[in-house]
């Protein structure tokens, strides 16, 4: 719509510049004049309608991951975020000024590091209460008992607990709705959906016989199976998780991984020494180890269910299938 308006204004400007006192400009036909007269009004009306549709109407009542229903009378002016994923989502919506507290573990974006700290796995409830937030956003790292404890202090606490990529994008849309940043939220999720589509398109072009089996070690001696984001990232990349027969986090079954004979091994950049993988008894015969296809993955990109999760997806795909992504 903006492009159409700009084109129209340019066309009118050029037409005006072409008129002079010595030559009569050709008379436009009825068909040429009528649409040009109508387009600016239609564009303005459509833009106004889109802007209004993207505005949150308060009071807004929503239910969080604990099943609690709560009502927002207005966009929260003071926000405390108690998880890195929540903080990243809020900053992505442009809520820097509204954020009055974050967890000790929040390190992205850079501005998050200078925000007042509200504790880590052990929360500083005094600091949280003192911040006088309109809303406290938490993730699954904060258990329901702690959530209820915070609510008992008179705090409004909204919990998110996404299980899939789609859930993450839906949660970002909810952030946008609560904070009246729906247009910004859509911009974020549109970019994420574009990342996913790019990977899916590339994965679809890979022949069945070329599909890789992947082993992921995100914590020393631990891997992930079904029901985890990292398994979904592998699956979306068109590969097979060597631990696909397991669910959630589990200790490594060394013999099962040897039998699966993964083509690629991905490991945590922060916490796993790849040499410990190479040195395991019998693992020197695994295809990935023999071929030297062990790749470090950015922990924060693949473990935080926020706006950068699809960047993690791209990193996973590139490690599995180098040079396949257009």
User: Rough shape?
Assistant: globular
* Average residue-wise pLDDT: 87
Regions with little confidence, pLDDT below 50 for 5+ residues: 1-42
- Sheet-strand content, in percent, reads 5-15%
Overview of the molecule:
This protein is α/β, with parallel strands linked by helices. 44% of the residues lie in helices and 14% in strands. The protein contains 13 helices and twelve strands. It has helices spanning 2-17, 30-53, 84-92, 125-130, 144-151, 165-179, 182-204, 229-236, 254-260, 274-278, 287-291, 299-303, 309-320, and strands at residues 60-63, 69-72, 79-81, 99-101, 135-138, 157-159, 213-219, 222-224, 240-241, 249-251, 264-268, 294-297. Strands 7, 8, 9, 10, 11 and 12 form a six-stranded mixed sheet that branches. It has a four-stranded parallel sheet with strand order 4-3-5-6, with helices on both faces. Strands 1-2 form a two-stranded antiparallel sheet. A hairpin with a 2-residue loop joins strand 7 and strand 8 (222-224). Helix 1 packs antiparallel against helix 2 (30-53) and helix 6 runs antiparallel to helix 7. Mean pLDDT is 87; it is low at 1-42.
Brief summary:
With 326 residues, this protein is α/β, with parallel strands linked by helices. The protein is built from 13 helices and twelve strands.
Helices and strands, with pairings:
Elements lengths: L1 H16 L12 H24 L6 E4 L5 E4 L6 E3 L2 H9 L6 E3 L23 H6 L4 E4 L5 H8 L5 E3 L5 H15 L2 H23 L8 E7 L2 E3 L4 H8 L3 E2 L7 E3 L2 H7 L3 E5 L5 H5 L8 H5 L2 E4 L1 H5 L5 H12 L6
Helix pairs in contact: 1-2, 6-7, 7-13
InterPro entries: ABC_Transporter_SBP, ABC_transptr_periplasmic_BD, Vit_B12_bind_prot
Protein name: ABC transporter substrate-binding protein
Keywords: Signal
């Amino acid at each position: 719509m903006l492009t159409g308006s700009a084109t129209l204004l340019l066309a009118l400007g050029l037409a005006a510049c072409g008129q002079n006192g010595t030559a009569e400009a050709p008379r436009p036909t009825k068909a040429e004049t009528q649409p040009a007269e109508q387009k600016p009004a239609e564009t303005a009306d459509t833009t106004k309608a889109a802007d209004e549709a993207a505005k949150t109407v308060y009071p807004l009542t929503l239910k969080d991951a604990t099943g609690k229903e709560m009502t927002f009378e207005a966009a929260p002016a003071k926000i405390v975020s108690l998880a890195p994923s929540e903080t990243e989502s809020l900053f992505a919506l442009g809520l820097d000024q509204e954020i009055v507290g974050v967890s000790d573990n929040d390190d992205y974006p850079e501005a998050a590091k200078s925000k007042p700290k509200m504790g880590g796995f052990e929360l500083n409830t005094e600091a949280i209460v003192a911040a006088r937030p309109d809303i406290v956003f938490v993730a699954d790292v904060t258990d329901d008992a702690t959530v209820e404890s915070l609510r008992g202090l008179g705090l409004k606490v909204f919990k998110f607990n996404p299980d899939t990529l789609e859930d993450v994008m839906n949660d970002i849309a909810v952030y946008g709705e609560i904070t009246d940043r729906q247009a910004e939220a859509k911009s974020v999720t549109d970019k994420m959906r574009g990342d996913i589509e790019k990977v899916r398109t590339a994965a679809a072009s890979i022949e069945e016989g070329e599909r890789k089996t992947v082993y992921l070690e995100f914590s020393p001696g631990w891997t992930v199976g079904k029901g985890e984001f990292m398994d979904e990232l592998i699956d979306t990349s068109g590969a097979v998780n060597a631990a696909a027969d397991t669910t959630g986090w589990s200790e490594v079954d060394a013999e099962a991984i040897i039998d699966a004979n993964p083509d690629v091994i991905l490991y945590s950049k922060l916490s796993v020494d790849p040499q410990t993988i190479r040195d395991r008894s019998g693992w020197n015969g695994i295809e990935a180890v023999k071929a030297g296809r062990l790749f470090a993955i950015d922990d924060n990109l693949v473990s935080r269910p926020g706006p950068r999760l699809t960047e993690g997806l791209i990193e996973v795909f590139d490690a599995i299938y180098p040079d396949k992504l257009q």
